[in-house]
Amino acid sequence: MDIVRKQGVFDHLLMLEKAGTAGQEKQKQDHLKELHAAILTLRAKRERLFAETAALKDLKDKLDQGLPLEEEETDDFMQLEQFLLKSRLMQLKDLQTVYHLIGGYNLIESKQGKSVCVSFRTAFEGMYLETYNLEMDLRRTVQISRHNIPPCVPLERLAKEHLQADFKAFLEILSLHLNALAGRKQQVLLIKELIGTVEIIERNQLCNFLVFMCKIQEETEAAVLCTLEYGDLTQCLPTRVTIESENKTLAESPQWKKNQVLLMESPVHSALLTMRKVGSIV
């Protein structure tokens, strides 16, 4: 009797296992069908986009050659141009959704979708600083129409390298340049505010070249001249630090070698505060 009961249990478990396997197989097949359908849809959209882009290019070539367009071709050109405008706006709005979360830039559509205004908000150490604005014309080729980007930022070069090929790369690298510039300028202001004994000797508009003098001992009036060069304009930290002093032994001492590394790896005002704390400067 027990043997019969056990056989019945085993048979039931075997049936459940087969049913479960069959269910998993059906789910797998359904999922594959969904993926296949999605691939077909995306492929159709891609082919449609290629066809519309090719048609727009043919019409644009005709215009560039000075050839007249037929009425039907004119309507097609306007529709395709509007389609590309919407595509560019959608791309830029997707970028805004992601990048706005980290305080990069905001996008505002203008001129009925024919242009977009980009607002770059700069920040350093959690403090918002300057805001810069740039307007881009989205018709045919993307072009910068107006902006208040500082002249020292290589905007023309960045646009030539990235604007037509990759919106995202252009906006991100421009944001990096603006934030780094704001950060370097803010560090100079913090030096003046926090360390009154440090004298700024020289700085340029980009703040990628900074020379300042540190006092060592008030009695002897010893001083050290520090030169910071920022070779990477997308960064707030220098790529080269030079230490000079009339006291050659002082400039080559182990402590000032450490200070040189500190100036390379920390914001300059933070490094100077640390140097004053350990007694390297007054």
What is the β-strand count?
8
Main beta sheet: strand number and arrangement?
4 strands, antiparallel
The rounded distance between the terminal residues' Cα atoms is 97 Å
* Class by SSE composition: alpha+beta
- Relative strand content: 15-25%
> Helicity level, as a percent range?
40-55%
Order the strands across the largest sheet as they lie in space.
1-2-3-4
Number of helices: 7
Q: What does this protein structure show overall?
A:
The protein has 282 residues and is an alpha+beta fold. The protein contains 7 helices and 8 strands, in the order H-H-E-E-E-E-H-H-E-E-E-E-H-H-H. Strands 1-2-3-4 form a 4-stranded antiparallel sheet. The protein has a 4-stranded antiparallel sheet with strand order 5-6-7-8, covered by helices on one side. Helix 3 runs antiparallel to helix 4, helix 4 (167-194) runs parallel beside helix 7 (268-277) and helix 6 (254-265) packs antiparallel against helix 7 (268-277). The longest helix is centred in the N-terminal third of the chain and has 63 residues, at 2-64. The N and C termini lie far apart (97 Å). The model is unreliable at 1-7 and 95-103 (pLDDT under 50).
Summarize this entry quickly.
The chain is an alpha+beta fold. Helix content is 55%, strand content 21%.
Question: What is the secondary structure topology, with strand pairs?
Answer:
Layout: H1 2-64, H2 71-99, E1 105-110, E2 115-124, E3 127-137, E4 143-147, H3 155-163, H4 167-194, E5 199-203, E6 209-217, E7 222-229, E8 240-244, H5 248-251, H6 254-265, H7 268-277
